User: What shape does this take?
Amino acid sequence: MNHKYQVRLALRPKALPAMSAEQIAQHWSLYEGYVKNVNVLNEKLAALCEKKSFGPEFAELKRRLGFEYDGMILHEHYFGVLKAGQKRPGDDSELIKLMKRFFGGFESWRQEFAAIGKMRGVGWAILYFDPHAQALTNHWIGLHEVGHPAGFIPILVLDAWEHAYMVDAGVEGRPAYVEGFFSCVDWPQVERNLANARHQAALGV
Assistant: This one.
């Protein structure tokens, strides 16, 4: 029996300084669609598996499932780090220490991450923790499921698809959206994400 996923209502952001309520509402509706599609595809695939029907329909649904799953999960990472009024961690925090080690400091990291988010094309800018090297690294991810470094753990996720900013800023509004994103980041949550990633690495998960 397949697990049925639920929309994670606790992650829905409120009163963000750089994103309107309507922008969030439209974007949240898209996330709900990913959750729905994951459940629908899992049900259809389970039925095909029950019949031992592993032909073209199974293959295409299985391929599509990766797009829908990662669309759901990445949006949960994205919404999960959006919160108003959060200050950047102090220089003694583990997050800032790692940023200094691997990027030269917070501002150097921020400039690189912002540049990735502003690149042409649809996709995501993601700060990962590499559990093997105990390193932080920025990456561009395209169609949800394409390009993730195997085994790396997302720490901070920025949605750079047009739907993330078009309500507020229009089709040319990505640069302003990316810069505004940093005022909406729940940095204590990012620190918790890092701590959880390091704990997983220590356990060999």
The two ends are 24 Å apart (CA to CA). Strands lie at 124-130, 135-141, 153-159. The CA atoms of residues 26 and 150 lie 31 Å apart.
